[in-house]
Task: structure prediction
Amino acid sequence: MPRAGTRSASSDETAWAVPPSLRASLARKFGPVYSGAQADRHIRKLEHFGACGDRVTERSLQLGCLPFVGIVDYKTQRDEPIPRDAFRALAAVRVVHVQNPPGLLTESLRKAVRDLVKTGGGLIEVEGEEDLGSLALVESLPAGATVIYGIPGEGVSFVRVDAVAKEHVRQLIAQMEPRRLPRGD
Result:
């Protein structure tokens, strides 16, 4: 039993950090990237998909396409505010709040994605940064689904979930550096 004032390991959580050697791999495109009207056409064709990022999730909803799971942090690359109301339709399904510090993929975020996939979908609101949430979406969504996420200055990446994509994500996460973070509870 830990002494008073010391943190127990059970109050920590695992997170994975991207080492410098992995940054180039994560920056590579793993699906086609479309922008503007072409991206909109592809979003409209999606049947079962997850969206990672404020702009792509917002745009999907504007087009009348409800992502099964959307991950947002209410921040954009250009620091343009996105009103919470923009995600109302997805939040009506279910909302989960998680902390995920910048540059990390926490077990909390991975678990939130897994849980929403099992229980009917919804919106994940991230305090911190949602960027690596696309990995959790590929990891948890079923084969045949699509994961979309924004690439600043380029457009929207479309990744088809299949055994190859899932294995690629497993390998990326295995190459990341595990960290222990205090949960703060």
Q: What stands out?
A: The chain has seven helices and ten strands. Residues 53 and 114 are 17 Å apart (CA to CA). The two ends are 18 Å apart (CA to CA). The chain has one domain: 14-22+30-182.
